[in-house]
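re: the backbone from monday

yeah here it is again, tokenized this time
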């Protein structure tokens, strides 16, 4: 029997409480690099959601039925990276063929999904948490939606920063990192939500 409450807790927790970008600080490179424009931030986020879910759907059975069964769990990181790299190549080929404008907008950041530690982090944390297949997929979806939320929020913040006139020593990267830290602090307000979600 499916535990719907448990799945909702995993989903909400992945989006808000355990946000991979703003709480676990994984996937910072695309977060800072692609969040200047809402369109590219949205496109990157959708690609990451797709890769997270697909890589989870592929890596969970590999871990469960291959690596653990034959006692070669120590190859987990290498195998997972290879799977993620192959899936990113598929996404890149599809975008280049069907959505060339988005492909050009994402530029170098699309291949960086391969090295996006948030994607690898989700696949490994699913195994470490002992999630079943459905729970892993829900966690991957929630993590991807959390990445999407962080990207869209920070894109809005950065569009407002364009109009700001900070001191010269504070302009550029220092201001961006400070804004990211403040957005991250806002997410600490969700701590404790999971414990009281159905209470």
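seq for it, each position gets an aa:
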């Amino acid at each position: 029997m499916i535990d719907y409450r448990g799945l909702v807790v995993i989903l909400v927790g992945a989006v808000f409480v355990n946000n991979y970008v703003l709480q676990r600080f994984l996937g910072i490179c695309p977060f800072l690099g692609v969040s200047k424009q809402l369109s590219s931030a949205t496109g990157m986020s959708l690609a990451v959601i797709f890769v997270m879910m697909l890589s989870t759907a592929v890596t969970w059975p590999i871990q469960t039925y291959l690596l653990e069964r034959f006692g070669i769990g120590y190859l987990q990181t290498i195998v997972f990276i290879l799977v993620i790299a192959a899936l990113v190549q598929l996404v890149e080929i599809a975008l280049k063929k069907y959505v060339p404008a988005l492909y050009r907008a994402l530029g170098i950041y699309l291949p960086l999904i391969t090295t996006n530690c948030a994607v690898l982090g989700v696949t490994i944390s699913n195994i470490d948490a002992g999630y079943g297949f459905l729970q892993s997929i829900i966690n991957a979806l929630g993590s991807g939606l959390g990445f999407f939320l962080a990207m869209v929020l920070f894109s809005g913040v950065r569009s407002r920063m364009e109009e700001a006139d900070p001191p010269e020593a504070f302009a550029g990267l220092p201001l961006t990192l400070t804004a990211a830290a403040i957005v991250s602090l806002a997410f600490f307000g969700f701590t404790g939500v999971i414990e009281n979600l159905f209470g």
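The chain has a mean pLDDT of 87. The CA atoms of residues 56 and 123 lie 5 Å apart.
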